[in-house]
Design a protein that fits this description.
Order of helices and strands: HHHHHHH
Radius of gyration: 19 Å
Helix content: over 70%
Strand content: under 5%
Low-confidence stretches: none
Number of helices: 7
Shape: globular
Structural class: mainly alpha
């Protein structure tokens, strides 16, 4: 953002809309889950996250004169994250009823690890922070989809391990 002429104060203030979007997402997500159920809401939030990540990736490859082409989709991701986080954590903890504290610790560790690795990637390539941010968000979206597929039995069954015994010749 400094490359776009923004001062440190402006950069700090740019986090305010994202924070508000996260809180709004949490509130709207709660209301949507009550009305439509968590499965439908989660699918919609993953779609919103994916679309927003694609917008960030495209915008990050351009030469920008303003932060808004990246900040606006980041706010949409914040809405999705604010609404998605309680759903995902609730599902993860409900699947580990015998040891919810361990599951919560594992979930937090994974979250911090992925966030740290993504931040490290962007920091290591700070001279090209804008395009690297787009790449990092696409990689995170891939991780989101992998997690969703692995947690969804119907989707998971569509993928199989290659096995030569299943190959049938048409002779």
């Amino acid at each position: 953002m400094a490359q776009l002429g923004y001062q440190a104060r402006d950069i700090g203030l740019s986090f305010i809309p994202q924070t508000i979007a996260f809180m709004v997402g949490g509130y709207l997500g709660k209301k949507a889950v009550q009305k439509y159920g968590d499965e439908l809401v989660l699918k919609q939030l993953i779609a919103l996250f994916t679309l927003s990540a694609a917008m960030i990736f495209v915008a990050s490859q351009w030469t920008l004169s303003s932060i808004w082409p990246i900040l606006a989709p980041f706010c949409l991701i914040a809405v999705a994250n604010g609404a998605m986080y309680p759903i995902v954590v609730n599902r993860a903890l409900s699947s580990a009823k015998q040891s919810p504290a361990t599951a919560a610790g594992l979930q937090n560790s994974l979250q911090i690890s992925v966030s740290s690795l993504s931040s490290a990637l962007v920091a290591a390539l700070a001279s090209q922070a804008q395009p690297v941010t787009g790449i990092a968000i696409v990689l995170c979206t891939g991780g989101l989809w992998i997690g969703y597929i692995l947690s969804n039995r119907q989707l998971r069954e569509q993928f199989t391990t290659p096995d030569n015994a299943r190959v049938v010749s048409d002779e």
